[in-house]
C-alpha cells in the first residue's frame, strides 16, 4: 500500500479545512432558523457545526501523524491526572469574572428586567449541556490538542496563543453577522470579540501547560461560553467586559508565571 506523505504545513491545512467544513454547516444552521425548524433541530445543527475543527483534524490526522492512531492520540490528551488546584483556580477566576459582569449589568438596569436569559432551572441545565456539547467539546481537540501543541514546538506559549487565538477568533466570522449589528457597532463587537478570544486563549494555554490535560481548556471554554450566554445584557457591553477582565487575567498570568507563558 502506498504510504501518504506528511503534510508540509499541517496547521495551515487544519485551519483551512476547518473553515471549509464550518461554512456550509453554518449555512445549514442559518437555513434551519430561516425556515422555522424546531429549536432542537437548530441546536443540533449548531452543535455539529462547532465540531468542524475536530472533523478537519480527524480527516488530516494520518497525513500529520502517520505512525499514530487517532484514538490513541485523543486518549493521550486526557491521560494526565487532573490537578484539582489548577481546575479550581481556573473556575474561581471565571466565577469572579462572571460575578463582576453581573454586578455591572445589574447596576445598569432599572430592576424591571431579569439580568439572566434563563428563567428556570431546567432551561439552565439544558443550556449548560448544549453549550458543553458545542464549542468546549467540539473545538478543543483540534485548536488546543493539536494546533496549540504543534505551534509551541516552534514558538513560545504566548506567541502560539496569540497566533492560534487570532485564527480561532477569525473562524467565528460567520457568527458575527448573525448578531444583527451593523456599521460601527459591528466593528466594536468584532474588536472586543477578538480581544476576548485571544486573552481567553492565553488563559487556556497557561493553565493547560500546568496540567497537560484537555479537560482544563474544556472547562475554561465552557464557563466562558456558559456565563456570557446566561447574562441578559447588551451584547457589545458583555463582550467588552469579558475582553477587559480576561485581558487583566492574561496579564497577571504572564507576570506571576512567565515560564509557562513567555518562553519556549
TrEMBL record:
<dbReference type="InterPro" id="IPR042150">
    <property type="entry name" value="MmRce1-like"/>
</dbReference>
<dbReference type="InterPro" id="IPR003675">
    <property type="entry name" value="Rce1/LyrA-like_dom"/>
</dbReference>
<dbReference type="GO" id="GO:0016787">
    <property type="term" value="F:hydrolase activity"/>
</dbReference>
<feature type="transmembrane region" description="Helical">
    <location>
        <begin position="40"/>
        <end position="61"/>
    </location>
</feature>
<keyword id="KW-0812">Transmembrane</keyword>
<feature type="domain" description="CAAX prenyl protease 2/Lysostaphin resistance protein A-like">
    <location>
        <begin position="124"/>
        <end position="227"/>
    </location>
</feature>
<protein>
    <submittedName>
        <fullName>CPBP family intramembrane glutamic endopeptidase</fullName>
        <ecNumber>3.4.-.-</ecNumber>
    </submittedName>
</protein>
<keyword id="KW-1133">Transmembrane helix</keyword>
<keyword id="KW-0472">Membrane</keyword>
<feature type="transmembrane region" description="Helical">
    <location>
        <begin position="214"/>
        <end position="232"/>
    </location>
</feature>
<feature type="transmembrane region" description="Helical">
    <location>
        <begin position="12"/>
        <end position="34"/>
    </location>
</feature>
<feature type="transmembrane region" description="Helical">
    <location>
        <begin position="82"/>
        <end position="106"/>
    </location>
</feature>
<keyword id="KW-0378">Hydrolase</keyword>
<feature type="transmembrane region" description="Helical">
    <location>
        <begin position="238"/>
        <end position="256"/>
    </location>
</feature>
<dbReference type="Pfam" id="PF02517">
    <property type="entry name" value="Rce1-like"/>
</dbReference>
Amino acid at each position: 500500500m502506498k504510504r501518504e506523505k506528511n503534510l508540509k504545513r499541517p496547521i495551515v491545512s487544519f485551519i483551512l479545512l476547518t473553515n471549509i467544513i464550518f461554512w456550509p454547516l453554518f449555512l445549514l444552521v442559518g437555513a434551519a432558523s430561516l425556515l422555522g425548524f424546531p429549536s432542537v433541530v437548530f441546536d443540533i445543527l449548531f452543535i455539529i457545526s462547532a465540531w468542524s475543527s475536530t472533523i478537519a483534524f480527524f480527516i488530516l490526522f494520518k497525513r500529520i501523524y502517520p505512525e499514530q492512531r487517532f484514538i490513541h492520540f485523543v486518549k493521550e490528551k486526557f491521560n494526565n491526572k487532573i490537578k484539582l488546584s489548577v481546575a479550581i483556580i481556573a473556575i474561581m477566576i471565571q466565577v469572579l469574572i462572571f460575578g463582576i459582569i453581573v454586578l455591572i449589568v445589574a447596576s445598569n438596569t432599572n430592576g424591571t428586567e431579569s439580568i439572566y436569559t434563563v428563567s428556570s432551572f431546567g432551561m439552565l441545565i439544558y443550556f449548560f449541556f448544549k453549550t458543553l456539547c458545542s464549542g468546549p467539546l467540539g473545538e478543543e481537540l483540534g485548536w488546543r490538542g493539536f494546533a496549540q501543541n504543534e505551534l509551541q514546538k516552534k514558538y513560545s506559549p504566548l506567541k502560539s496563543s496569540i497566533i492560534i487565538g487570532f485564527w480561532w477568533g477569525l473562524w467565528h466570522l460567520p457568527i458575527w453577522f448573525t448578531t444583527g449589528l451593523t456599521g460601527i457597532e459591528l466593528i466594536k463587537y468584532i474588536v472586543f470579540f477578538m480581544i476576548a478570544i485571544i486573552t481567553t486563549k492565553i488563559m487556556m494555554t497557561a493553565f493547560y501547560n500546568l496540567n497537560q490535560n484537555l479537560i482544563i481548556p474544556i472547562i475554561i471554554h465552557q464557563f466562558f461560553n456558559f456565563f456570557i450566554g446566561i447574562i441578559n445584557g447588551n451584547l457589545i457591553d458583555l463582550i467588552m467586559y469579558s475582553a477587559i477582565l480576561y485581558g487583566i487575567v492574561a496579564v497577571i498570568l504572564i507576570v506571576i508565571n512567565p515560564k509557562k507563558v513567555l518562553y519556549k
